[in-house]
Amino acid sequence: MVTKIALWSVAATLLATPTPALAEPTTPIAEQYATTAPEPNPTTTATEAYAALGDSAASGNGTRRSDLSSSCYRSSRAYAPMIAAERPNTTLAFLACQGAETPDIVTTQAPNLTPTTRWVTVSIGGNDIGFGDLILNCTSRWDEPTCLATVDQVNTRIRDELGPKLDRAYAAIRTHAPTATVLTIGYPRFYGPNTTCPDADGATPTEATALNGVADNLDTKIADRSRAAASRTSASSTPSPPTTCAPKSPTSTAKWN
């Protein structure tokens, strides 16, 4: 069944070639999902450590291939494995897991970083504010008032609750990877201008506008708290308005060193 919104797709997840499924070993998580770019540049001897943190937007849910971990829905088609494969001499700690919230960054994912981690991407916050509630009330029933009431609740969580949670997650990353360049990845808008395409699944224009507003508010909060985390340097946020019915790329990124 096609749902009303394609929450979890990212452009990078659609391009990678499949890799064989990995067994679930008992070694530490940072080692379980470590991969190395297959064609290292012979002129470059140093290896850079890259860690991908976050929720299902980072793990690859929506790619229809959980070949790296079924429990966390880690996919070889997610953007992190693709980035690692494209960069010579890059090792990947693929820590993102579907369903993750900001406390999972603090207690489970960030502790696997090390002082030698050079790059970190993190996509987090959607589950904290209630993406699941949006799915339940805006895609599984034809009830616009219920959907819009849920949107109001989610926007309130973004405004009143999410900021301190992101601060704690970003601080944990900095603690465990003090010299890494950290890129925070925003979430895509749910709809483009065409709500009659199959992926829209009958959303009303009012619902589409409201849900896009949630994504915009969430990305604004992520960019704001990223700038706060980068108070000693500069950070940037670059919006990318959707051009298709189901946009598949993050709408904003921010970074700090």
From TrEMBL:
Residues 228-238, 245-257 have a biased composition (Low complexity). InterPro entries: SEST-like, SGNH_hydro, SGNH_hydro_sf. GO terms for molecular function: hydrolase activity. Residues 1-23 form the signal peptide. Residues 222-257 are annotated as: Disordered. Residues 52-224 form the SGNH hydrolase-type esterase domain. It comes from the Bacteria. Keywords: Hydrolase, Signal. Its EC number is 3.1.-.-. The keyword ATP-binding does not apply. This is SGNH/GDSL hydrolase family protein. It comes from Actinokineospora soli.
